[in-house]
Backbone:
């Protein structure tokens, strides 16, 4: 692989999330005032606008809201990955996140597929949350 | 509406590639074409709305276009800004202009746009993907524009039974219209069949190459004015009867409904402010970066029932001779997608249809025309309703 896949920028608000991922934990923010779960990380609760958020570990399980099988790599670092699955997963705690579905033949991915978090290694020790089917079969290709 | 705001003049240049022109050069070409076509007394124009130059290139945008173009035109407006709502920018301009006119704060507002399309090579695709998705929580998963739209298409197919063939039928319908527009980019390519679309190169499922709009460059300008001023410029203005806007998610992963993109809210406001219903609409111009969009937004604007949008196109009802002509200029799919200026094309066509100036593609009874635009990744929506009577 020549080009490395992109890395997130890390700031004060998002550092705990990426540190958690390095440790193999998917973290969410939870509002101490209204108990809402929040993802992507931010400095306030989008529901009640209180700024007192705590970090909690997600169960890491959810469902595929929608997905696409990408056939044409958008840029060089994905050239070796096509076809890959880009998806939105809704976590059981509520928040939705962009992700990839791995560990399954792309053509078998469906809306509402139950998935659980796994982590992809990136440069610099970064680990990026992805998802695989919960009922993993023997056909796992990754 | 009070003081009868209307589109009094509308011009779009022939889209193409203009490597020798930067965005401000292209603005000059657009405005010159507009001034050559219409006789407008500059002293009547007291508003100017323009878009940032160079948005879609991802290289940083010029946010002072209104100052420089205003000066160049010798205007000293009382209502002016460089405004951006992505592809919805120009419908939002029309809405802002109509509001200013109706409330007595302006009399005639010139709205203009020029758009380049970034080259996808040389890091362009990556810069673009970074811009259209959350750079830290979406882009890192290999996002790019067709894949992000495919997320909506896939959910629409799941929830509403829309078929792969129905998506292709949208491209076929748009091409039929493009054959009737002298400036449409794909006019020279001839007719399209469903098989052509299905047989083109897969990009991000369900989309193939011919489900995607055609990148090009261009621009357009229109004038919104008080009704009496409009009637002094053109015998049949396109009155702005109603409009609505709605801003939903930022990053597309936060959309609450991928099958609708919550676009119906803008349409509901537009109908309510116009005192009209979907059954009053005779022609619709719907922003179409990809083939799913006319299906999705036909349903969201109430012009087809939920789940009936695909069948509508399969039956040819939006094509020439159909019951409800859709994207009569060829759409971004076949007229061309002029980058930052793409949100202009459906407004210009909506205005020309309403004015009765659409040439070979004129729809006979275009009394009420709906224009639906959106910006971002279907994140913000603006619907306009234009008509022949104030």
Residues:
């Amino acid at each position: 692989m020549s080009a490395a896949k992109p890395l997130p920028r890390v700031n004060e608000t998002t550092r705990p999330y990426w540190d958690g991922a390095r440790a193999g934990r998917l973290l969410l923010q939870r509002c101490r005032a209204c108990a809402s779960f929040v993802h992507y990380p931010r400095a306030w609760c989008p529901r009640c606008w209180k700024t007192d958020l705590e970090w909690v570990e997600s169960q890491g399980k959810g469902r595929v809201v929608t997905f696409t099988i990408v056939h044409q790599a958008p840029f060089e670092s994905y050239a070796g990955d096509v076809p890959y699955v880009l998806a939105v997963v809704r976590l059981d705690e509520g928040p939705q996140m962009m992700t990839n579905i791995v560990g399954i033949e792309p053509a078998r991915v469906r809306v509402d597929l139950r998935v659980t978090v796994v982590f992809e290694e990136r440069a610099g020790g970064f680990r990026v949350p992805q998802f695989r089917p919960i009922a993993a079969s023997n056909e796992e290709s990754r | 509406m009070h003081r009868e705001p209307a589109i009094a003049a509308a011009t779009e240049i022939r889209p193409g590639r203009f490597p020798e022109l930067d965005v401000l050069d292209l603005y000059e070409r657009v405005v010159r074409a507009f001034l050559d076509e219409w006789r407008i007394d500059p002293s009547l124009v007291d508003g100017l709305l323009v878009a940032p130059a160079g948005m879609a290139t991802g290289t940083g945008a010029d946010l002072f276009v209104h100052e420089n173009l205003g000066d160049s035109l010798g205007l000293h407006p009382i209502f002016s800004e460089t405004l951006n709502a992505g592809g919805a920018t120009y419908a939002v301009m029309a809405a802002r202009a109509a509001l200013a006119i109706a409330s007595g704060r302006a009399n005639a507002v010139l709205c203009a746009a020029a758009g380049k399309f970034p080259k996808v090579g040389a890091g362009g695709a990556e810069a673009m993907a970074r811009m259209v998705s959350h750079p830290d929580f979406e882009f890192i998963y290999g996002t790019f524009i067709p894949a992000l739209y495919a997320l909506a298409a896939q959910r629409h197919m799941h929830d509403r039974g829309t078929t792969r063939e129905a998506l292709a039928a949208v491209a076929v319908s748009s091409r039929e219209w493009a054959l009737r527009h002298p400036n449409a980019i794909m006019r020279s390519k001839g007719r399209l069949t469903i098989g052509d679309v299905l047989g083109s190169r897969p990009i991000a499922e369900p989309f193939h190459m011919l489900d995607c709009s055609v990148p090009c460059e261009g621009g357009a300008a229109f004038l919104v004015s008080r009704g009496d001023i409009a009637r002094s410029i053109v015998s049949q203005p396109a009155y702005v009867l109603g409009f609505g806007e709605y801003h939903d998610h930022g990053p597309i992963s936060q959309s609450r409904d991928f099958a609708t993109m919550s676009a119906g809210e803008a349409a509901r406001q537009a109908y309510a402010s116009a005192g009209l219903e979907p059954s009053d609409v005779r022609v619709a111009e719907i922003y179409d970066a990809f083939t799913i969009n006319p299906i999705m937004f036909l349903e969201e604007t109430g012009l087809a029932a939920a789940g009936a949008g695909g069948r509508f196109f399969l039956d040819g009802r939006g094509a020439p001779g159909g019951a409800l002509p859709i994207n009569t200029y060829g759409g971004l799919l076949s007229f061309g997608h002029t980058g930052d200026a793409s949100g202009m094309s459906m407004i210009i066509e909506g205005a020309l249809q309403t004015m009765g100036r659409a040439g070979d593609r004129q729809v006979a009874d275009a009394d009420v025309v709906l224009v639906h635009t959106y910006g971002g990744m279907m994140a913000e929506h603006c619907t306009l309703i234009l008509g022949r009577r104030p």
Q: What stands out?
A: Chain B has a mean pLDDT of 96.
